[in-house]
Structure formats: C-alpha cells, structure tokens
Amino acid sequence: MTEQPSSASQQIARAAGTVMLAFVLGNLTGLARQILVARAFGTQAEMEAFNAANRVAETLFNLVAGGALASAFIPTFTTLLTHGERKGAWRLASSIFNLILLVMAAAIGLAALFAPQITRYVLAPGFASEPAKEALTISLLRLMLPSAALFGVSGLVMGVLNAHQVFFIPALTPSMYQIGLIFGVLVLSPRMGIYGLAWGVLIGAGLHLGLQIPALSKLKGRYSPALGLEDPSVREVARLLGPRLLGVAVVQLNFWVNIGLASLQPEGSVTAIVTAFALMLMPQAAIAQSVAIAAMPTFAAQHALGRLDEMRRSLADSLRGVLLLAIPASLGLMLLRRPVVVLLYQRCAFDTHSTELVAWALLWYAAGLVGHCLVEVLARAFYALHDTKTPVMVGAAAMGLNVAFSVLFSALFARIGWLPHGGLALANSLATALEAGGLVFYMRRRLDGMRGGFILKGSLQAAIGALALSIGLWLWLARVGNSPAWLSALGGVAIGAAIYAAAMWAMGVKETRALAKLFRKYIFRA
User: Three-state SS for 44?
Assistant: First the structure.
C-alpha cells in the first residue's frame, strides 16, 4: 500500500520548496560572486589573506549569534507562540537582541585589539614567514569584524520570521550578501584592491539584515529595552545555548585548524579548500538547508503539542527526501568536478594550477555531501526537541576526530605525492559521515524508531539511480574528451539528471510521482 504524506510533511515540503527556490537564487548570485572574485584575485596571496581574515568574523557570528543561537531561540520562541503567549515571545526576542549587541560589541573589540596575536599564533601561523601577507591579513580582519554584529542581528530576525512560517524573504538574504560582495569586487576593488572586497563584506552584511526589516515590521512585534535576565524564557534559551556553543566552538576550531594547516602548505591551499568547500555547500544548501529550515518550526510545534508520532513521520519523510537528492548530487559533483571548476572560475588570475588545486579539494569534499545533508536535518530535529546536548556531544567527538584526521591525512597525502590539502577535505567528509551516523543512532532511541525501513528503501533506490547516473557520466566524459568545459559540465548535468529521473520513475519512487503530478497541475491547469 502506498503511504500518503501527512499534512505536516506536506507543509514542510511546500515550505522547503519555497526556501529551495530562494537558495537556488542565492547559489546563482554566489556563483557569480565566486567567478568574479576568482577572475580578479585567483588563488594568490591577497586572496589567501582575505580568506584567512574572514574566518574570524564568521567564527564570532557562529559562536555568538549564528546557528548556535537559532537552535536555542527558535524552539523556545515557537513554544511561546504555540501556547498563545505572544507578548512573552516578543519580550524574549527583544532580550536576545539586546544581549547580542552587548556580547558582539565586546567580542569584536577584543578581536580587533588582539588581531596580530590571533593571526600569528592561531589563525595562520604559516603567514609569519611572509610579513606583507600577515600584515594584510591583520588589516582585513579588523575591517571585516563589524559584519559579525550585523549578521548576528540578522540571524535573530531570521529566526523570528521562520517561527512565524515566513521563509522566502529570510532565505533570500544570502543573495543580498553576495550582491554586496559583487559590488565590492566590481566597483570598489578596481580602486581599492582586496580592500574593496572586504568593504563588500560589510555592505553585504547590511543588505542581509536590511532585506528582512520590512517583513519583521509586518509582524507588529513590540520591542522591550531590557536584558530579561530574570525571564524564564531567556534562561531557557541560555540553557539550550550553552551546549550548542560548545559544539559550534569545536566546529570552528576545526576550520581554524584547517586554515592553519593549509597556510603551511603550498600557496593557494587556503583558497582552494575555502572555494571547494563553498562549492560543496551549494547543493547542500539547496537540498538540506531548505528542508531543515522549513522543518524546524514544524518539529518544534509538534514537540510542544506532544505529537511525537507526527514528528517521527515528518522527520522520516524529510530525511528520505534529502537522501534521494544528496546521493546523486554527491557522485555527480565528484565526477564533474574539473569541468565545473574550469567553467566557473578558470579565467584571468585563476589559471590551470588554481583549477587543479580547487578540483582536487572538491573531489574529497563532495564525498561528504550526504553526511553534511543528514547532519543539517537531524541536528535541527534535536534542537526542536529542546535537546542541544546530544548533537553537541556527537559533533564534538566527530570534530575532534576531524582535527586528528586533518593532521593524519594531510601528512599521508604529502608522503604519497598527492596535494596535501586534499587530506583536509577528506578528513572533513569522513568525520561528518561519522557524525551523521551518531545522530541517527541517538535519534532512533529518542523517538523510539525512525521508520528505518522507509528511509532505507529510499536510500537503496537513490543508490541504484546514482549508479546509473555515474555510468552515464563516465561514458559522457570519455566521449567528449577535451571538449569545451561548458559542454562537458552542462551536458553532464543534463544527462545525469535525465538518467537519474528516469531511474527513479522506473522504480516507482513515490516522490517522483508526486512531483510529476504537481508539475502537471501547475503547467496544464485550466
């Protein structure tokens, strides 16, 4: 008997489709930005300094007001809304806003003051042998730090909107950030060099926040100029935030370790791992982040109402849908890595050597795409259950392994004559796969099962379809040989998608049938 999706799963699917559309737009603007930046700066010293410096602002944002805060704020805020406590919900949002500004101001000030020590001893010790590159990194670091505060407030606003089932506008904010960077590289960089790109970060952060203000104002919430330290809801956010902060700190430590190790490797390694990781995150954002963002408020509401059976079904539907897309995307990106990098980036300062560096890292990062997608959805399901400890413990263990793997694999790659930064990418993929496995194990115990047979069946169908896709792409690449990159890449994407879709249809995958029905409804309706 064919299982019918629940109304909650349908709501998640609709919202995920909306978010996915916005993320596709974000990916397109992100691609445009990456192409322009690669053309202008390649993988040379200026770009190395920028990528290292930007890591500090991103770390502050993630630690204080990014994913960590959202995972603690949205479940608490949604619970208040679900129980009709609208005034309490807005008092909570106001208190968190005030606390963000205070904490971020202090963190930015300290980071600016100790920028030289952070750069030399923690962030990029390999730059110490090149004083000009080190000095540039310090200067860029200080310039871009205020973006962390803008992103912090924007992240809170995004959480408020998502809790009200407003998804499209918040999901468009990455596009606004990319537009700021595009303005920086096109308008400012010709006169200011790499500093123009740094100013683009600040402009993009402002646009990231500004786009959401009109949607926030429509909710007619009331601001309270208080910290609310005695408010039980604020304390609940703090209770949930503590373990999550530890988990984010461990993840950020891994990024810093990778940047530090890459700074000791041949020039271009830092930019190669940053660029390749960003490429891997594009399908991850469209596939998993869209589902996770759309599902979290629903999961939180189901938990608040005690409907764990509904949550179990919604989670299983979400994971199965993610796997059906992530498995073929992973293999396709691995096979098409080189023509994709050539098509997107290889021009001007980004030469064939830069292409080889990025494509090599992308091979190993793409292998971890499925793990990254599963972690994205499962972690948010735990947060919806007001459980930040479990994903933090699993994530901390996985990221600890990641650091060890990074040192081990980069040394191993260098010993056998491979580019060592590929070992950093492989370490990330392996650790993330182990993290996903751990989260599945604990979620099954928490929900007393996860409809494993239903998910496994979808995974096997996806694997069969992905195998057919891989064979088709291998034959295609052998056939086109040294043809232009646009033909190899775009033709490969089209052929791979057609083969996979045909395989899914032939196996009777229910999601394929539902998608075809929806397509006919909107295309051929009267």
Answer: coil
Q: How far, in Å, CA of 156 to CA of 77, rounded?
A: 11
Contact 148, 108 (CB under 8 A): yes
Distance CA 234, CA 213 (A): 23
Phi, psi (degrees; rounded to nearest 5) at 387: -120, 100
Residues in a beta bridge with 350: 347
Domain assignment of residue 526, yes or no: no
Contact 52, 127 (CB under 8 A): yes
Residue 414 inside a domain? The answer is: yes
Q: Can you read off the two tokens belonging to residue 276?
A: 């390749």
- Which residues, listed in sequence order, are joined to residue 347 by a DSSP beta bridge? 350
Residue 48 domain-assigned (yes or no): yes
Nearest Cα neighbor of 158 from 232, 107, 234, 93 is: 93
What does the pLDDT profile of the chain (526 residues) look like in tens digits? Answer: 344 445 666 666 666 666 667 767 777 888 888 888 888 887 778 888 898 888 877 776 666 545 566 667 878 888 888 888 888 889 998 998 898 889 888 988 998 999 999 888 877 888 878 888 899 999 999 999 999 888 888 888 888 887 887 878 887 888 888 899 999 999 999 999 999 999 999 999 899 899 999 999 998 888 888 888 888 888 888 887 777 677 777 777 777 788 888 888 888 888 899 889 988 988 888 788 777 777 777 787 888 888 888 888 889 988 998 999 999 999 999 999 999 999 888 877 788 888 999 999 999 999 999 999 999 899 888 888 888 789 888 988 998 899 899 999 999 999 999 999 999 999 999 999 999 999 999 999 988 888 888 899 999 999 999 999 999 999 999 998 778 888 999 999 999 999 999 999 899 887 776 665 545 554 444 4
280-to-30, 49, 145, 152, 485 alpha-carbon distances in Å: 12, 22, 26, 24, 19
Residue 365 · residue 398 · CB < 8 Å: no
How far from 241 is each of 8, 83, 387, 414, 420, CA to CA, in Å?
A: 27, 22, 10, 40, 36
| Segments forming the whole domain that contains residue 235 | 7-221+228-519
Spatial distance between the Cα atoms of 134 and 140, rounded to a whole number of angstroms: 10
What's the alpha-carbon Rg for the chain, to the nearest Å?
23
In a domain? residue 240: yes
**Strand (E) or helix (H) holding 258:** helix 232-263
How many domains are contained in the chain? Answer: 1
Please answer whether residues 169 and 161 qualify as being in contact, where contact means their C-beta atoms are separated by less than 8 angstroms.
Answer: yes
Mind spelling out the 3-state secondary structure of 312-356?
Answer: HHHHHHHHHHHHHHHHHHHHHHHHCHHHHHHHHHCECCECHHHHH
Question: What is the spatial distance between Cα 495 and Cα 497, in angstroms, rounded to a whole number?
Answer: 6
Phi and psi torsions of 24, nearest 5°: -60, -45
